[in-house]
Amino acid sequence: MAEPRRVLLISGSLRSGSTNTALLRTALVVAPAGIEAILYEGLAQLPHFNPDDDVEPLHPAVAGLRSRIRAADALLFSTPEYAGALPGSFKNVLDWTVGDDRAGSIYEKPVAWINVSASPTVSYTHLRAHETGR
Question: Of 47, 63, 112, 121, which has the fewest CB atoms closer than 10 Å, so is most exposed?
């Protein structure tokens, strides 16, 4: 039997009643056979990104996030939009993860994004620009 594919689920919301986090919790329940869905719940523990702190030894929350990403086969993001852009808490995740130059980092992962908002959104544009470096 093949090893299950690990998908790390990351919500960009800190709110306890977040619909984005609820969507990811649902994904945990409905993940098909062969998929091991893992919800990342350390968003609130991440320190504010500072390039000067992106050195060993890393803050334990940053090291844990990077380790979880390296252990995953793919990532699924669900994040709200605030003031027409990605929320700072989610941008902080991206800032901390793009500095990881070890094998299995975010650069080597298939990434998907899902939005639960019923209204048009510009967050996708911001994520796409972050992916391409523009």
Answer: 112
pLDDT tens for the chain, 134 residues long, are: 688 999 999 999 999 999 999 999 999 999 999 999 999 999 999 999 999 999 999 999 999 999 999 999 999 999 888 777 888 999 999 999 988 999 999 988 999 988 887 665 555 555 555 555 54
93: closest CA among 127, 116, 121?
127
Q: What is the pTM (predicted TM-score) of this model?
A: 0.86
CA distances from 55 to 45, 58, 65, 92, 103 (A): 18, 6, 15, 16, 17
Say if CB 43 and CB 93 are below 8 A apart: yes
